[in-house]
Design goal:
- It is a single chain.
- The chain has 9 helices and no strands.
- The protein is about 60% helix and about 0% strand.
- Helix 4 packs parallel to helix 7, helix 5 packs parallel to helix 8 and helix 5 runs antiparallel to helix 9.
- The protein folds into 2 domains: about 55 residues, Arc Repressor Mutant, subunit A (Orthogonal Bundle), CATH 1.10.10.60; about 120 residues, no CATH class.
- It is mainly α and about 200 residues long.
C-alpha cells in the first residue's frame, strides 16, 4: 500500500487575517525577541512552512503586525486638525490611557515599547517600530507648528520640544501600563502632563 503524501503549503482552513491578528497579540505582549517561531505557529495554528509561505519571515510578519496594530488598535489615537490644540492633545492622551490599560488586551503600546532593545541581528525589526514612532512624532510636530501659526500656542512655545515631551509621556504611559498601571493611574499622569502645557496663546493684534 502506497504511503499517502500530505500536501504541502497552507491548509485549506488557513485564515491569513486571523493568523496575523494572533501574531500581533503575541508581538504586542512579548516583543519581537520574546516571541519565537514556535510561539507564533502555536498561536496561529500553522506549521513553520505555512508561516513562511504566508508572510515570508518573522521580521516581515512583525512589520505587517505593526501595520495591523496601527490600523486596528491605534486608529483613535491620532491628533486631528482643529481649533483647540490643548483639548486635542488631552483627548489623545486620555485615549492612550484607556487603550493602554484595557484588560482585554496586552498592556501598553506595541509600537511604543514592543522593540526598544534587541540583538544586532534583529536591528531591522527594531528599526521598523522606530520608523513608525518617528513618523508619528513628525506628524505631531507638524500639528503643533500649525497650531502655533494659528495662535493656539504662545509665541515662545517650541513645537518640536512639546512634541517630544508628550511623545515621551505616551511612551512612559505604555511602560507603566505594561507593568500593570490602571486607567486611573494613567489618567493621573495625564493630569500632571497637561499641567505642563505652555499656557494660553497671546491675543494677536
Amino acid at each position: 500500500m502506497s504511503e499517502r503524501i500530505k500536501p504541502r503549503g497552507r491548509p485549506r482552513s488557513f485564515d491569513r487575517a486571523d493568523a496575523l491578528h494572533k501574531a500581533m497579540l503575541l508581538f504586542w505582549r512579548h516583543g519581537y525577541e520574546g516571541t519565537s517561531i514556535a510561539d507564533l505557529t502555536g498561536a496561529m495554528g500553522v506549521t513553520p512552512p505555512t508561516l513562511y509561505a504566508a508572510f515570508g519571515s518573522k521580521e516581515k510578519l512583525y512589520r505587517e503586525a505593526l501595520r495591523h496594530y496601527a490600523k486596528d488598535e491605534g486608529s483613535d489615537r491620532s491628533i486631528p486638525g482643529g481649533s483647540n490644540i490643548r483639548a486635542e492633545v488631552e483627548a489623545y492622551l486620555r485615549s492612550c490611557a484607556r487603550n493602554f490599560s484595557d484588560p482585554a488586551k496586552p498592556g501598553g503600546c506595541m509600537v511604543s515599547t514592543g522593540s526598544l532593545q534587541c540583538a544586532v541581528e534583529n536591528q531591522p525589526a527594531k528599526d521598523a517600530a522606530g520608523e513608525m514612532r518617528a513618523r508619528a512624532l513628525q506628524s505631531f510636530t507638524a500639528r503643533l507648528r500649525q497650531a502655533k501659526k494659528q495662535g493656539e500656542l504662545r509665541d515662545e512655545a517650541e513645537p518640536a520640544v512639546l512634541a517630544r515631551y508628550y511623545a515621551a509621556i505616551i511612551q512612559g504611559m505604555s511602560v507603566q501600563a505594561s507593568d500593570g498601571a490602571s486607567r486611573a493611574d494613567l489618567d493621573a499622569m495625564v493630569d500632571v502632563a497637561m499641567g505642563a502645557w505652555p499656557g494660553k496663546a497671546r491675543k494677536r493684534t
